[in-house]
Write a structure and sequence with these properties.
The chain has 145 residues and is mainly β. The chain is built from one helix and ten strands.
Length: 145
Amino acid sequence: MAFTSTALLTNEAKRRVADMWDTGKSYMVDYFAISSGGHDPTDPTIALAPDPDAIVMPGDPPIFGPEPIDSKERTSDYCPVFVCRLEPGEVVGILSCVALFATIVYSPVPGDPDVGIQFLYAVHNRPALIFTATDSAEFRINVFF
């Protein structure tokens, strides 16, 4: 199964962009995780609206990941697509949230303790999917700025 969707950028990610403009400190979107916290538990056909103030993914802890993003593409000069694949058996059960995580990779301040910190970058909630041990999926995640 292949799914193309848009994730909501977290306020933490926006704050980190402001830090980049101000100081040069930068990050790379490099991990994804899966959870079952993205749907309405009373109606699994309804996705919950992501909370931009969240610092942990809905349904934390994840049922899969964080794992490195499988690949990155561009649909335009300013629109990256993060390709996140699940192989058969990696997730068994309900899946309804794909979260992207970023890692701070550079700071102009020598010895900055923020380098290496990982944070919740973006969240995509969806209606529940039920995965068996033979199911696989590819999530192509765009980010809504």
